Amino acid sequence: MKVAMIGAGRMGGTILRMLKGAGSWSLAACEPDSKGREALSQEMGKGVKLVEKVEELGEAEVILLAIKPAMLEKVAGWLRTRKDSYLLISILAGVTTEKLVKEAGGKARVVRAMPNQALRVGEGVTALCAGAGAKKEDLEVARSIFGLGGTVLEIGEGQMDVVTALSGSGPAFMAKWVEELEKAAARAGLAAKVAGDLAARTMLGTGALLVKEGMTPGELCAAVASPGGTTEAGLKVMQAGGMEALAEKAMS
User: Fold this and answer.
1) Which residues form the Pyrroline-5-carboxylate reductase catalytic N-terminal domain (predicted)?
2) I need a labelling partner for 19 at 20 to 30 A (CA). Which of 142, 175, 191, 218 fits?
3) Are 155 and 235 members of one domain?
4) Number of C-alpha atoms within 13 angstroms, CB side, residue 27?
5) Which helix (H) or strand (E) holds 15?
């Protein structure tokens, strides 16, 4: 099966590497940026056809959109020229399946996907939702692609904006919290490198406890925080500082 990717930047490049590593796909990618295209060409070798313009991609059973939403109109004309029915997988934030079908033409069977950056290390999470004309087999194709980089969930399209904020933007939100903990520890006297390692690995271990042991966040907080202890005091400071309200604002 041939996959033609439009956009091979940070996320598109990650997906392209996953597919190349799997070795079971015929791959082509359009990347207008000459430096990015040249770097990918050197990295990928002969296994991926890299082109400057979408018109050079040729026919494909699967087209994967990994561009900025504002660029959709620029490639829509080419999408409408497709001769046969095809699967269009889009990672464009905020662009509905209805709009994608309208822009791409009636031959597109649309699946939306919202992956995150952790695909790069095999710990990503991707949410999928199907458009009105998509088949069960189309979702399975999308699942097989994003499953190469982690966990895949299927949701209703009405939930996609929340998922975009939670797991799509979530790595940045969590990284910011790690950064602030690191800075606070450094101000308290820890070497910056030590503080960074401790903060990042604590985040990593916390995620492992929640996922692998099935603990809820509340259970983990209770397990760590002894009554009257320093952890409980720190949690109270966070609550008093409006952590819940900040999370809601960041998600909205």
Assistant:
1) 2-94
2) 175
3) no
4) 25
5) helix 10-22
Do 129 and 239 belong together in one domain? no
Residue 10 assigned to a binding site:
yes
C-alpha dihedral (27, 20, 7, 151), degrees to nearest 10: 120
- Record the tokens describing residue 82, joined without a space: 């497709």
Spell out a b/e string for 150-186, using b for 16 or more CB atoms within 10 Å of the CB, else e.
bebeeeeeeebbebbbbbbbbeeeeeeebeebbeebb
- Contacts of residue 67, defined as CB under 8 A and 6 or more positions apart, other chains included, come to 6, 7, 12, 75, 92
Task: Report residue 79 as tokens.
Answer: 């999408």
Is 112 assigned to a binding site? no
Query: Known binder of ligand: residue 171?
Result: no
Residue 236 in any domain: the answer is yes
- pTM for the whole thing? 0.93
- Residue 5, annotated as binding a ligand: no
**Residue 9 marked ligand-binding:** yes
Q: Which of 75, 77, 91 is nearest to 14 (CA)?
A: 91
CATH number at residue 219: 1.10.3730.10
Q: What is the pLDDT of residues 31-70, one digit of tens each?
A: 998 998 999 988 988 889 999 999 999 899 999 999 999 9
C-alpha gyration radius of the chain: 21
Each residue's pLDDT tens digit, 185-211 = 999 999 999 999 999 999 999 999 999
The one-letter amino acid at 140: E
- Is residue 102 within 8 Å of 53, Cβ to Cβ? no
Domain count for the chain: 2
Is 11 annotated in a binding site? The answer is yes
Residue 184 belongs to what domain range? Answer: 170-251
Asked whether residue 34 is assigned to any structural domain, the reply reads yes
Q: What is the CATH number of the domain that holds 98?
A: 3.40.50.720
